[in-house]
Amino acid sequence: MYKIREYESEKDIKSVCRIWRETNWIDEDDQDKCVEIFLKEGRGFVAEYDGSAECHVSSKPGILKYLKADLKLSIVSSVTTSRTARKQGLAKKLTAKLIAADATDGALVSTLGIFEQGFYNLFGYGTGSYEHWLTFDPADIITNQKITPPVRLGKEDWQLIHGAMLNRHRRHGAVTVLPSCFLEADLAWTKSAYGLGYTDESTGELTHFFWASTKGEHGPTTIHLMAYQNMDQLNELMALIKTLGDQIRLVKMREPAGIQIQDLIRNPFRKRIVTEKSSFEHLNRGTAYWQMRICDLVACIAATHLNSKELKFNLNLSDPIEELLDNDSAWKGCGGMYIITLGPDSEAKHGFDEGLPTLTADVGAFTRLWLGIRPASGLSATDNLAGSQELLEALDDVLCLPSPHPDWDY
Questions:
Q1: Contact by Cβ (8 Å): 294, 370
Q2: Which of 14, 106, 243, 245 has its CA 20 to 30 A from that of 352?
Q3: 55: Cα within 13 Å, side-chain hemisphere
Q4: What pLDDT band is residue 29 in, cutting at 50, 70 and 90?
């Protein structure tokens, strides 16, 4: 019989590292220290059998940028099960318990990265926006900007880099991971890695940078992290990336929120044709690999301030996580019947008004609508969301939001 309890570092770290090796999240014993650093802060639960942790989940506190508001966020940062504990329902049980614990502590939204679409829908998550990853020759970046010599950054500069990520320019949907141990471990895991950036001479603050790794003499180079505080700094970083083109023939990077990298690349279609099926192929690929779910509907709607007319409707909201929670869980999900008001000042309250139209949705689909991932009319065709045509069209008009992007993988 498995014992469910909180993670205890001194007792569990060796077992958790073994699980991470069995899942091939790490492949060398010297990476155990990185796992220990990664788990220094945040919450965790394990399923113990015969004195050994066989399933482990962890989360980190964070911030979600929703329009102009900062919302308390839970980031599910790891879900792992050993080879001997598969198909026991342990990952489901522990993940549900983790989400509930963070929600009880005030997390308004929860997010995670996915290994495949479908599994985490069981917990009420809805799929996020497409993240565009582009590969291109850095020499093809269109810029005339002159750069000054950057500072070198190494893995030992994790505090400087974390500070830059905390203070970076954030758009709608941006995720900030608060514990610095997350970034300290992430940098340590990256092989053949380096950073280049710029500091404020008066304060020593790292204002803008990128963190990258390179394979081979000519690349490709993958840019894993990038931070800047304004568009001038972004342009300076793109000019800095261009200087790599003297040697590197391919760069891979995620498109920053609000920017189309294709605008900055010379002859992008020509290069895709010329490099097709080569080792240095130019591509633009979109993948949705993160998910989110609302944990506190009333608070999330209260933080929603729209430049639109007012719209009122009933919301019949279902939450699949309810079936996975223990009977004594303080947080029971957020399913129920609500009266929703959307507009400059929004509100959600429990109840039902016979004079209003009704939207029926599960929490994952409604989260996608609320975030602006897809419009109501589109979600009605592909997700668990339904309402009258008039209501769907009205929601399309009112919830017209920028595409959300975390700009930080987790």
A1: yes
A2: 106
A3: 22
A4: confident
